[in-house]
Amino acid sequence: MLNRFGHLETPPVGPFRFIALDVETAGRTISGICQIGLCFVSDAGSMQTYSVLIDPEGPFEAFNTELHGISAETVMGAGTFPTVYASLFEVLNTHSLVQHSTFDEKAMTAACARYGMPMITSHWTNSVSIARQAWPSLKRAGGHGLANLKKHLGLEFHHHDAGEDARASASVILRAEEIFGAPLPYLRTNRQLTFSFENRP
């Protein structure tokens, strides 16, 4: 099943080389996640994108809704963070993760703290840092945000949709590796052991 941007509504079966993760939030509270997007990258470089809406159990700010198009009506009937997170915990906790900036990890950590749930222990890579290494000249030419990288690299995605931004972050990593002439050594399949969500303290 696909959403409006063609993303999967059920996560694909791994293992994967790495997973890029992006979140959208409902308002000023960073723990109020209303969408999670994941891009699953294989060893061959193929990408599969998944996204899921979440009821943030809190108010939506007009600014946020204007940015990502998600409102209280949009998430009506959607699962809450604990339900969605529990279903994703194992796949997230057993793969290296990529985020563009550190906002996504902070939001996930805050949401876990809010609901008293264990935070994933995966290794996180910041694709902003990787982009700075690959394209240093952009520092004075619009910076290394996804919007500017979209223009500079000719990426095609709908900014501020979590699934789309996750795919963009993954694309930045893959394009940077072309510049480096080698894959990032810490982004490889099966680098972590499997942990059971139910057995976590």
Question: What would you say this structure looks like, in words?
Answer:
Helix 4 packs parallel to helix 6 and helix 5 crosses helix 6 (162-180). This protein has helices at 62-68, 81-93, 103-115, 127-134, 146-153, 162-180; strands at 18-25, 33-41, 47-53, 97-99, 124-126. It has 201 residues and is of the alpha/beta class. 38% of the residues are buried. It is globular and about 45 Å long. The longest helix has 19 residues, at 162-180. It is built from 6 helices and 5 strands; from the N terminus they run βββααβαβααα. It has one domain: Ribonuclease H-like superfamily/Ribonuclease H (Nucleotidyltransferase, domain 5), CATH 3.30.420. A 5-stranded mixed sheet has the order 3-2-1-4-5.
Structure characteristics:
single chain, 201 residues, alpha/beta, Nucleotidyltransferase, domain 5, five-stranded mixed β-sheet, 6 helices, disordered C terminus, hydrolase, exonuclease, exonuclease activity, Ribonucl_H, RNaseH_sf
Helix content: 25-40%
Strand content: 5-15%
Question: What name does the CATH topology carry?
Answer: Nucleotidyltransferase, domain 5
The major sheet is characterized as: 5 strands, mixed
Q: What pattern of helices and strands is seen along the backbone?
A: EEEHHEHEHHH
